[in-house]
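Structure ticket #2291
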Amino acid sequence: MHGKWYDDACGTAFALELIGERWSLLIVREMMFGPRRFTDLRAGLPGISAKVLSERLEGLEKAGIVQRQLLPPPAATQVYGLTEWGLMADEVIMELGRWAAHSPLHDPTLPLSAASLMLSFRTMFDAARADGLVMTVGIRVGDEAFNIQIANDNLHAARGAAAQAEVTFSAPVASAIAGAVYGKIPLTDLAPAGLQVSGDLGAAAAFIDLFHLPKKIARRGAGTI
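Resolution: structure written out below.
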């Protein structure tokens, strides 16, 4: 029930009661690009146990954020997806990520899931740099495929293979693609990590230039920011 943790009417306090437990918000993040199987969620969050994932999913379902669905045959598999209200949390997640990326303690080289990478593109997209650019980009992380459409200074990202992409980035793990996009590491240097880029290399460079991490805030003393 509302108020069980904080006894506070503030909407922020209520939001923390809903998604403030460890892993909850990241579970929501993993479903931002469509419903996922239990095993998919565990793969995207390798540090979570099956027990904790089950508990968090149950709590999110009771709160009206997550709903269970049964895929039609031949899959006939149970998946977890966000409700319409749950999907509204995407702006919250992106703003939190944008805010936290200013910290000098943020380490962009740590592992991240495919969904996290795609959400980061929506978060860090620089519309000013995309002036007049029209492009379709494919992203493949392991067995997961995504497509990005850039037009009218907007970026739309969705799950599914890209049709007639100008360029496609493929890698076994998302961090290899993040290294190219955010670390600006030369593509050839990331080949040992499994990064493959097919298509127009000029389009690849133009895509990479659309994303830049924000300037870090100055630290004011030991242990403080």
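Closing remark: The radius of gyration is 19 Å.
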